[in-house]
Structure formats: C-alpha cells, structure tokens
Target: Glutamate--tRNA ligase
Amino acid sequence: MTTVRTRIAPSPTGDPHVGTAYIALFNLCFARQHGGQFILRIEDTDQLRSTRESEQQIYDALRWLGIEWDEGPDVGGPHGPYRQSERGHIYKQYSDELVAKGHAFPCFCSAERLDAVRAEQMANKETPRYDGHCMHIDPAEAQQRIAAGEAHVVRMKVPTEGVCVVPDMLRGEVEIPWDRMDMQVLMKTDGLPTYFLANVVDDHLMGITHVLRGEEWLPSAPKLIKLYEYFGWEQPQLCYMPLLRNPDKSKLSKRKNPTSVTFYQRMGYLPEAMLNYLGRMGWSMPDEREKFSLAEMVEHFDLSRVSLGGPIFDVDKLSWLNGQWLRELPVERFAAEIQKWALNPQYLMQIAPHVQNRVETFSQLAPLAGFFFMGGVSPDAKLFEHKKLSPEQVRQALQLILWKLEALRQWNKDNITAIINAVAAFMGCKLRDLMPLIFPAISGQASSVSVLDAMEILGPDLSRFRLRQAVELLGGVSKKETKEWEKLLAAIE
Ligand code: GLU
Model:
C-alpha cells in the first residue's frame, strides 16, 4: 500500500494567511491519521511578488500554531528542492515533453494581439479566451523562431466540448464544461512555469497522494486533470475544502477581519486555541465538543465529517474559545505564556530604548508604554479634532495612510514615515500636521514615545488594526468614499 502523502503549497506573497493554516491543519490531520507524511512546498514562481520574508513568516506562523512538516525547504527531505524557484530546470523538460507529444504548443502572440482579440470577443459578448492562433504553426517553424530568440509562452491544448468530471472527495463528481477552460499558459516568457504546470509536476514527483486544497481552486481543476492525463500520470485524490467566510458570509477578507496569523499572535491568542478554532471550520468532533487539541483532532479525524456549508471565521467565537483555553491552563503555564507573548527579553529590548529617558521610576512604565501590550487602544474621538483639517479630511488622511500601509512590504520606520509624508504632501500639509492623528490612533493617547518607532515595533498587524479602528471611531468610510478615495492612491508617491 502506498503511503499517504499530503502537502500545502503556499505562495510566499504576503502575510501568512489563516486560510493557509486552516488548509495545512486538515492536510496534516489527514496525513497523520493515515500514518503518512505532510510536506510543505513553497510555490514562488511569481518572482515579482514572492519574498523570502514572507516565506519565513509562513514557517514561523505555522510553527507557532504547532503545525510541523516532514519535508520542506527548511527541513529538507528526499524529494527536494521544495522551493519551486530552485526547480526551474525540471519544468522545462516537462513542458518540452508536452510540446513534443502535441499536447502543448509555443505561442508567439504579442500582448497587443491578445488584447485586441479579447476586446473583440468582449464586444461580441463571448467569453474571452485564447483563439488558438499559434496552435497550428508548423513545429519546425516554431523551433526555428524559438532558436532565433523570439519571445514566446507555452500553452496547453484543452478540449472545446464536453465536460470534465472532477472527482472530489467531499462533493462526489463535479462536472465542469470544457468550454469554460482557456488554453492555459504553462510556461511564461521568462521561462518560468505557471502554477498549473509546476503544481502538477511537483505533486507527481513528490509522490503526493491526496491534495486537500481550498475550494477556490475547483474551477481550474479540469486543467490539472488534463495535465495528469497528458503526462500519463496517476492523479492524486482531490479534496476541495470549503472557504473560510466572514460573519456576513462573504469570502474571508482582510477588509472585514484580520486574516494574518501573526495578527492573532500579536493580539495574544494561545496557539492551541487558534488551531482548535481552525479545526472547527467545517469540521466537528464526533461528540461535538468544542475544545480539543491537535492530538485529539488527529485521533478522531474523518474527512467525511467535513461539511460544505461555508465555515464562518468569527473572531468573537475564537475569543470565547481562547478564554476557555486560558482558564483551563495551569496557572504557572498561564504566566509563562504571557511572558512568551510580550514580556520576553526580545520585545522588551525593542521598547526599552524609547522609554529609558522618559521615566524616573519603573512604575511610570505602564501609563507610558502600556499600549505596547494592548490590542486595540480605544482613543477618545476628541483627540482627532484638528486645527487645520476638517473631520472628513482627518478620516481621509487616516484611511489613505492605512491603505498605503496595507500595501507596504518592508515594515520599518523609514518606509512608514515616507508614507505619512506622502499622504501629507498630497493633502497639502506637513508630516507634523498628521502626527497628531497618528499618536492617538496608535497609542490611544495625545502623546507618547516616538510613535513612528512604536509602529515599527508594534508591527504591521497591530498598527493597521489600530488605524482601522480609528477610522471606524470617526464614522468609517462609506462605499462611495472608498471608491473615490481609492482612485487617489495612485497619485500618492
Ligand atoms: N500555490 C497555491 C496557493 O497559493 C497552491 C494551491 C494548491 O494547493 O494547489 O494556494
């Protein structure tokens, strides 16, 4: 009997998402329950958006939660490398194989031509798709053009009629019409594979037997299935896990709920409670108990208990569950966990240089620097009254800064300052005019230690959360304003 092997394959392009942790947890439980292995693969073929920092954050976030993998870029294993950017040589060979077998073809179409085709199809109310222009180029001619260095991609052929039957472990057979599938690009002009090719090749070479992935990938399943068929490989069992949702049932998004695992860490949730809550997403224990450990979940895990109704990720419920966990900890462990959370030497050393000159006794620390140990800070709305800016401008300035900070990749004082400066310039004022808004938003007080340093120390999750709360306190941003103000962002540099 083959050993069960599951994996997660996150792309390191942003904050470590709770959805990644959720899918990881279910893959881990499935593998452990069958005595199999769980693999972590980094899908970083998008060179522009992938970063090593984001990759490290994924490791840190999963480990914090208690999720461990048997093979991965950082722990090695017999099927490495586990980072797709280090497997470039492998994909080319498989892409060539598909072209040689006539299942894929080089495509030389320019972006202008593709745009024109798309525009025409849209005008005719057709679904935009590649029109097959390069499909019939003579292979010898195509090889010559490639040898001459002409830019090209490789596209896969797809059937134009009939349906693809996707065997899903949760839904049974899902039928998806082939005419919804485009001739997917498999290799980009930069010679790197797209998700589709790299994912199939790696799952095969890494011996993955079961793929539990998010339901958002179901519509593209036919392309993957076709690729397995073209290669003549056995397809892993597929399982499309229900998407996490906001309490209003919309897809979990950071506009409505913090989605980064690190946010929950900084807020002071216990990793076991967080993992327990993720285990409650679409799944329940046979006896329906709410509080359970990872070991208990593995012991009782059964994929057939996954329900397809979209699981709601509700921060209030998570907090309730966290409270249960905290109350049942032995008091020594409770104290130790607080120390680990924020009373650790590393965190205190970041804060110390900013408070040392400002206190005469340690007992002045709590009023001065208490906000380093808080989640939200509840400032008084009066603190946002401004001499020069109208209430609407105040809200706008805070919202623009928040959006800019949401897109900021390198979180440090210089970059934060540059953003506030840029928004100030855009609004026709100075950095020092906006700082009186940032102080209460971040520290809850009219003044405190250097707030720009504080933002660097607090990190992106808590800083953004507090700015968002400040905007909410001042009345929030309407849909209309969101639309109008978002357009302004491009002009702020
Ligand atoms: N790289 C994909 C992601 O970011 C992997 C999806 C899959 O599991 O196939 O989620």
Residues 9-11, 43, 195, 199, 213, 217 surround glutamic acid (CB under 6 Å). The first helix runs from residue 18 to 33.
